Amino acid sequence: MKKKENVNVVVWTILVVAGAFVGCVPKPSPTSVGPGEIIPGGTFVVCEGLWRQNNSVLSYINPVGVTMRDVVSVVNAGQILGDNASDAIAVGDTVFVVVSTSASIERFHRVTGKWIDRLRIPNGKQPYRICYDGIRKIYCSLLNDDAIMEIDARTLHVTVALASVGPAPEGIASIGGFVYVALSGLGDVRVREAGSGTITILRTEDLRQVSQIVDVPNCSIVRADPGNDNVWAAFRNLPSKPDSAGGVVKISASTQKVIARFSFFEVRGLAVDSKTGDAFVLHRKGIDKISATDNSIRNIVKHESTNGADVWYSLFFDARADRLLIGNARQYVTDGEVLVVDQAGVIESRHQVGLNPTAFIQ
Question: Low-confidence residues of the chain, pLDDT below 50?
């Protein structure tokens, strides 16, 4: 399951007790859930499942709102996704899904959901986050190897097995011939190690470090916005400093310098509107929008989990409909849901998916 507050993979699956949902917007009736079908134009949802339970699934919400809970087993008889799916990207007509504990990258056809093949990651390595350079190369962070891997997107062959980056690489993004890698250091666990709490910037041509963004303790998420020449990153600060806020940094891709900083408590998700350059931040008390024009912050929707119930767990911006997709993990141990929210904060629909929805692909 998704990494929670700066601890290792085992602790990240600790469960929280039940509670009541708190929100400020009405709750429409849930969309009915049936077997569904993959109609082009929908949304794939990567659902982590629970660690060591082998119950990750790839759900699909078709354009008319009907959900297929488990694309892999429905479309590919007798097959399962594996243990602890953590991220995914789409390249052309192919979806790449990272399955961390199973140590593989799975390829599926984007239209049919048919399984194509897989890359087995050897020697106990743990693939975690993935990105695409927009040309041919895929980059994947290897959380427990302090490195990233380079892969040919067409052949799925590894072109660079290990490029060292620093302690506990998590989020990763590529833009303009560079790769940005968030080095969380697992929060307090490796905070004293060199590079912890930074974003390292590598050239794609040789994967050598060219620059570094500092003062981003426990950084976990990186998002590239090529159209607006920006990189956004979210950090969570340290558990040993509970009164200190984490936040978001906005980086110029041209200068590789931070151009703005924003404070938020417990950032859980970050999404960017590639048309406007606006950013959306999921944090402890809801979702805020950061304006690309003046860096002003506006609350979109208020939400705070109570006693671990209805935990908003992930965030995605649907550029096709100018809507936000929120992954609700609920209490982590039952199936989650995806909430479709407009920019006025109104929940337009809800869709039942697998356990712990963590990433979205369109």
Answer: 1-34
